[in-house]
Design a protein that fits this description.
Keywords: Membrane, Transmembrane, Transmembrane helix. By secondary structure, the chain is an all-alpha fold. The protein has three helices and no strands.
């Protein structure tokens, strides 16, 4: 489950990175497109202004040329009229004065028209420049607003991603801590159970050993007591028998001494030999038995 959680977290982070990358790439494309459109609009406006200026210059040049041609034509006509007519000065004044007046009026009208055209063109140019400035400023403001909105959105997304990552990390830390606590509790329970089982086994073994030792000691004590009783009884019986035999031998000796006076000397020696033989035989048997029993008791103790 932990590995699945980590894998899902990694996939979520990768998807978030992809989405962020796509979002950033879209933002960059929008900015590039807006910049390119602004540059194209500015270039078009500059070209239009240049074309208008060229047209105005051409119109002014044409008007000047027309005025010069008219003036030249009027001067030529006046000169021709003056040369062709040899009348008096009054005729010259009558003809020249209106011509001059017409020329002056025409020139004034043409100058006024040129001034009006220039003013109109300048107004148009100023209006176009103002429109261009307004368009550029609006586009720049729109771009700035879009960039600010994008930055705010990016900051919000980053904050949300950071909060999600922090929550995921906190959840992972809590899960790991809970797992560690559960593992520690299970290990402690297992250790306590093993210690209890070992203590019970040791207690049972100690009880069994104590019981066995006590039983063995009781049996050994009973066996030793039985052996001591048997040895004591045997020794006592043997001592009593030996005393009885000694008394019998004494009685026999007394009888021999009594019979010594009544029987021959050979029979006395025979009886004395038998007395000493039986006496030493029983004494040696008693000594060996008592000494072996003493050694056995010391070895058992």
């Amino acid at each position: 489950m932990v590995t699945q959680f980590f894998s899902t977290k990694i996939n979520i982070e990768q998807n978030d990175r992809k989405q962020n990358n796509d979002f950033f790439s879209d933002i960059v494309e929008i900015i590039i497109i807006t910049i390119i459109t602004i540059i194209i609009i500015i270039i078009i406006i500059i070209i239009i202004i240049i074309i208008i200026i060229i047209i105005i210059i051409i119109i002014i040049i044409i008007i000047i040329i027309i005025i010069i041609i008219i003036i030249i034509i009027i001067i030529i006509v006046v000169i021709i009229i003056i040369i062709s007519s040899s009348s008096s000065s009054s005729i010259i004044i009558i003809i020249i004065v209106p011509i001059i007046i017409v020329i002056i009026i025409v020139t004034i009208i043409i100058i006024i028209i040129i001034i009006i055209i220039i003013i109109f063109i300048t107004i148009i140019i100023i209006i176009i420049i103002i429109i261009i400035i307004i368009i550029i400023t609006t586009i720049i403001i729109i771009i700035i607003i879009i960039i600010i909105i994008i930055i705010i959105i990016i900051i919000i997304i980053i904050i949300i991603i950071i909060i999600i990552i922090i929550i995921i990390i906190i959840i992972l830390i809590l899960i790991i801590l809970i797992l560690i606590i559960i593992i520690i509790i299970i290990i402690n329970i297992i250790i306590i159970i093993i210690i209890i089982i070992v203590i019970i086994i040791i207690f049972i073994i100690v009880i069994i050993i104590v019981i066995v030792v006590v039983v063995v000691l009781i049996l050994l004590f009973l066996l030793l007591l039985l052996i001591i009783i048997i040895i004591f009884v045997v020794v006592v019986v043997f001592v009593l028998l030996l005393l009885l035999l000694f008394l019998l031998l004494l009685l026999l000796l007394i009888i021999i001494i009594i019979f010594f006076f009544f029987f021959s000397f050979f029979f006395f020696i025979l009886l004395l030999f038998l007395f000493f033989f039986f006496f030493f035989f029983f004494f040696s048997f008693f000594f060996c038995f008592f000494f072996s029993s003493f050694l056995f008791l010391t070895a058992m103790s």
